[in-house]
Amino acid sequence: MAYFEIRDWINNLKPGTGKKDLLLEYGGLDKETLEKMYKTMVLARRIELEEKTLLRKGLSRFFIGCGGKELIDVVASNFLGPTEPFVGYYRNKAFNISRGVTIKEQILEAVGDVRATANGGMLQQAHSSYPEFGILPQASPTGSHALEAAGVGEAIKCAVPIDGSLGIKGGRFPKDSLVYCTIGEGSTSSPEFHRAVFYSVYNKTPNLFSIYNCGWAISTSVNEQFPEGNPTTPFEGFKRFGLMIENIDGTEIKESIRVMKKLIDYVRSGKGPAICNINVTREDSHSGSDDQTHYMDPELQRYHIENDPLRKTAKHFIDDGIFTPEELAALYDEYDKEVAAVSAEVTADIHYKKPKDVLTKVYSYNKDRAFDRWYRLVKEKGEIRQEKYREFHKKGYFPTDELPENQPPMTLRTAINYTLFDIFMMTDDVILFGEDVADFAREFYEKGEEAMSKLKGKGGVFLVTKNLQRAFGPDRTYNTQLDEAGILGRAVGHSYQGRVPSPEIQFIDYMSPGYQQLKDRIATTYQRSNCAVRMPMVIRTSYGGYKQGAGAMWHSEANLGTYINIPGLHVVIPSNAADAAGLMRTAFVCGDPVLFCEAVALYNRRDWDGYNIMAKYPPLEKLIPFGEAEVYNKEAEDIAIISYGITLPMCLRVMEQLAEKNVSARVIDLRTVKPIDWETIKETVEQCSRILVVSEDRFYGGVGPTIAGYIGDQLFDYLDAPVRIITAKDARVAYGDDGDRICIPQQDDILQAAIDLAEY
User: Fold this and answer.
1) Once rounded to an integer, what is the mean pLDDT over residues 269-289?
2) Do 310 and 372 lie in a common domain?
3) Are residues 525 and 584 in the same domain?
C-alpha cells in the first residue's frame, strides 16, 4: 500500500474509546513518546517515497527500501542511549532518523551530493555513517559487519585503558554501552555472522543482534536457508552459555516494545549477549533493480501489505483511543510537504563530486602529523625505557639491559621484537592478538609468575612477539581462535573504540578467510565515512619463501599484487632490522590500516651469500616515511635494480658481483610497495636508463609489472634497453629446495639478467 493510500486508509478508521492504564500495554511509554516513534516511521516512509521519485527523475541512481522495518527500528532506538554503538545495514532509515539524521542529509545521500555528511557521495543512499550519533560506517557486504559489532563489544569490555596518546582517550563508547547490530535474515547465512555470535557468547560481550526477517533475501526464500525459516536455529546450543534468543513480531508494537525491552535489559545485566528473530514485512522489492512480483506469490504480497507496521500501529493507536484518525493522517500531509520542500531545495543545486573529492579521501596518512604523534610519545614516555629494560633484563626477557639502539647490529626478528616493546611501553593504546602470539594460554598465565618462570613460553611461531605477554599482561597480548576473519573483524572493533590494534595473520597465505574484512571493510572505512572515521591498525604477517625448502604452498606466498590493489591499505616490507624499526614506528602512528609484511627468510639471517644484512637499531626518534625508498650505491649509472623485502639482499649481493665484472649497479629498496616512491624511480631511470625489477610475487598483477608499466608509460624516452622483470613463476611454490629454485627468483637469475641488460 502506497504512502498516501495508508493516509486515506487511516482516515477511514473509526475512533476508539480507550481505557484506563492502557499505556501499560505499551511498556509504560507516554503518549508523547509513542507519537514521536510514529512520526519517525512516517517520515522514513515518506523519504523512501522521495528516493523512488528521484530515481524515476534520473536524479538518483539507486534505491533500496526500508519499508516494513520502521517499527522495530524506532522501538529499539527508544530503549537505547542516543549515541550507543549502532552497527546496522541499509534498511535502518527509521533508526537513523530517530538518532537525529535530517531529511536534508537523507536527500543528499540519495543524489550522491558531495555535501552528504555520511559519505560525501561515495556510496548509495542508506549506507550511513554518523559517528556523532553512534552510527558506525555501513557498507554493502552485509553479514561481515556483524564481526565488527562483536569486535566493538569486545573492545568496550576490554580492561586495557585508552590513554589517548594514539587513540581516542577513554574510548569512543563508555564502558556501560550496549552494541546494537541489525542484519537481514539472508545475511545471517554468512560465516562472519556465525562467528560474531560465537565471539559475543564466548566473551560475554554487550551485544544484541536483531535479525530483520522479511522472508526473502532478494528472491531466496528464508525457508530455503533455515529449518522452520528461523535464522536463530543454529545458535540454540549457545543458550547454555548465556545467549538469550527471542522471536518478535516486528509488525506488532506492543509485543515489539515488550520483547525488545526484555532483550536490552538482559544484555545490560552482563549475563550474556542476545539474538532475536524479528518478523518484518517487505513493502518494496529488494532494490530498484528487483521486482518481487516476479517470484512472490500474490497472496504473500497481500500479507506484506496488510501487515505493514505503519498501518497496524496506527490501528492500535486509534482503537486504543490514544490518537484519533485525523491526528495520525495529518502527519502524512505534514511530512509530505516538508520532504518535498527539502528535496526541491537540494535537487535545485546538486553539488557533484570533483576528482579531489574522491581521490583525497582514501588515506588519512600525513607524514608531518604522523611524525608529530611519534615525537610526542618519545618526549612523554621515552625516558622510562632504560628503567623498563633493566626490569625486563632481570626477568630474563632480554640478554642485556642495554637500550636496543646502543647494542650491536641485530637481526630483523630481534629489531621487530624490540620495536613492539618500545611501542607497548610508550602507549597503552596498542594491543596485539592473533594465533600463537602469546607466551602462554590465558589460563596458565593466571597461575602467576612462578609457574611461568619454569617454562620458556612461546611468543609467536617465529618468536617475534616473545615476552610481550609476560611484560604487559594477557589483556594486551593474547591468543585468539584460529579464525582470520574473526581476528581482523575484532580488530575493527578495537579500532572503532579508539585503540590501535595489531592483529597478526600468521602467514600471508592464510589471509584469504579474512580478505573481505580487509578489502571491503578495513580499507574502505576512511573513504566511506567521508573521512570522519579512521581505521588505524597494523596487521602484521609473515610472508615469502626461501625457507630452505620447508615452505611450499600456503607457507611461501608473496602475492603482494593482491594487496597493493586495495585502495586505503598501506603495504610495508622491510628488508633489514633498521628499516623494520623505522617503518613499524611510522605504521603505528600513521592513522591508517597497514599491512606489515615480515620476511620469514630474513628473521634470523645474518648475511645473504656473504653479504652482511645485520643492521643497527635506529635511535628512538628515527622514523621512515611511507613511500620513501632507500638507494644503495647511488653514484652507479650502468644499471639499476629495483626490489624490496626478501629479494633485496640478493640484489645487494648481485651488486657486489657486478662490480667484480666492472658493472656499476644501483639498488633501490622500495621499503613500501603501497605507496611506491615514484620520484626515486623517476630519478633512477633518468640517470641509469637500464632497469631490472626483481619481485618475489608473480607477474600477473604483481609489483614488478606495476613498476615496469609506470616506467614504460612515463619514462620510456630515458630507456636504453627494455625494462627487465624477474618474478615468481605462475605456480604455487612447491615443496623442497628444488621447489624453491623452480618457483621463485634466485640470485643467479638476477645476476644473469643484470649482465644481459648491461650488455644490451
Assistant:
1) 91
2) no
3) yes
